[in-house]
Design brief:
alpha/beta; single chain; 34% helix; Rossmann fold; six-stranded parallel beta sheet; 2 domains; 13 helices
Length: 405
């Protein structure tokens, strides 16, 4: 496993029986060379004593927000700034709820709010608690804000229940930490533009045409590119996702998307168009709300919207890499190949949106990279992992283009 020498990890331990596993996590991280500072909630101290973590980490263990600091610094701010990664394991339903709501009432929650480091949580709780809609909504909220999640696993829990909720094994948690901290910085100095989400085409002041795109794939690509050192511009349609990225351009219509992408395209090294712009818009936008008036039918005349990918392809410069998406329901490879040449793309990320675990409104995807010389099928995986594969493929296209130039 990779060396973590010089990396600072702040481990938050909360009050769950899985806290004993966190001792092994600290030991493994230390063996990889990481410096580990442990923050324990008071509930966590009921399961494992701070002395255990102090012995394993060779560092003071922080519990009390108002404990007097040896160096007269504000402890949670110092740890927040120091961290290369904030890991919370176990992450109980309580800490997830506080994080989602922005509550800061102890050392761990205040440190989470104060850090700009990547955050990884390892949920651990009773199955019913984990499956509760509130917990699931809190997890989705945190993931939409860039928080990474490992686990939980299924199996027999300490309470005797069987199901999801058991904290991931220490080696899996440490592997996730390594992946985050040792992400290749192969995109440093490169400008990457990513589009995401749907567009909306107005019908009247209260109605519009749109599609089911959630924006999750595009946001995952933008996040992965940022983690790999790129200067990322995210052009996003209306979605319910927040992101720590600073350079986000919000658009609504396909015309908006075209304008914002084209105004920036020439400066980009890689453009990945994961957005799902509407193909048609009403030819006339009504100034007032359309009334039903007892009519069984109305006629809505539609006009084609601009083809953003084609427009970008027509202005492609040497060395620039363009990646497109093809969300299909049938003849996936055939339809993707048609788009490849028509839009002057280096490759297309194609997927069958009817396949379980793929497409819209889910955090996983099954994609095929369609190239002029063949195709590559990827198995079901989280969208953030798909994003890394896309970026790696884009880099290989860039390297090949530079060699040919």
């Amino acid at each position: 496993m990779s060396d973590l020498k010089g990396k600072s990890i702040v481990l938050g331990v909360t009050g769950g029986i899985a806290a004993y596993k966190s001792c092994d996590v600290v030991s493994r991280l230390k063996k990889l060379g990481a410096e580990v500072d442990v923050i324990m909630t008071r509930s966590a101290c009921q399961f494992v004593q701070p002395l255990t973590f102090r012995t394993l980490s060779h560092r003071p263990v922080v519990v009390d927000t108002f404990a007097e600091s040896e160096n007269w610094e504000v402890e949670h701010i110092v740890l927040a700034k120091k961290a290369d990664l904030l890991l919370i394991a176990p992450a109980t339903a309580n800490i997830l709820a506080k994080m989602a709501a922005g509550i800061a009432d102890d050392m761990l929650s205040t440190t989470w709010l104060a850090t700009k480091a990547p955050v990884l949580v390892a949920p651990a709780m009773n199955t019913v608690m984990f499956e509760n809609i509130v917990t699931q909504n809190n997890l989705r909220t945190l993931q939409s804000r860039g928080v990474l999640v490992v686990g939980p696993e299924g199996g027999v829990l300490a309470c005797g229940d069987v199901g999801a909720g058991r904290m991931s094994q220490p080696d899996d948690i440490v592997a996730a930490c390594v992946k985050i901290l040792k992400a290749p910085r192969d995109l440093e100095g490169l400008n990457v533009l990513v589009t995401a989400g749907p567009t909306r085409e107005k019908i009247d002041p209260v109605r519009y045409i749109t599609n089911r795109s959630s924006g999750r794939m595009g946001y995952a690509i933008a996040q992965a590119a940022f983690m790999r050192g790129a200067n990322v511009t995210l052009v996003s349609g209306p979605v319910h996702i927040t992101t720590p990225l600073e350079n986000v351009v919000n658009v609504e219509t396909t015309e908006d998307l075209l304008r914002e992408v084209m105004s920036r395209a020439a400066q980009q090294d890689i453009i990945i168009q994961a957005a799902a712009p509407a193909d048609y818009r009403p030819s006339e936008i009504k100034s007032g709300k359309i009334k039903k008036n007892g009519d069984d039918f109305i006629t809505l005349e539609l006009a084609a919207t601009p083809d953003v990918a084609r427009a970008v392809g027509e202005t492609k410069r040497p060395g620039q890499v363009l990646v497109g998406f093809a969300a299909e329901t049938d003849n996936v490879l055939e339809n993707a190949r048609k788009k490849l040449d028509a839009k002057n793309l280096d490759f297309i990320v194609a997927n069958d949106i009817t396949a379980p675990g793929a497409g819209f409104q889910v955090d996983t995807n099954i994609v095929t990279f369609v190239r002029r010389d063949g195709f590559e099928v990827l198995p079901l995986m989280p969208k953030l992992d798909v994003a890394d594969h896309i970026l790696t493929r884009a880099m290989s296209c860039m390297d090949r283009g530079n060699k040919q130039a």
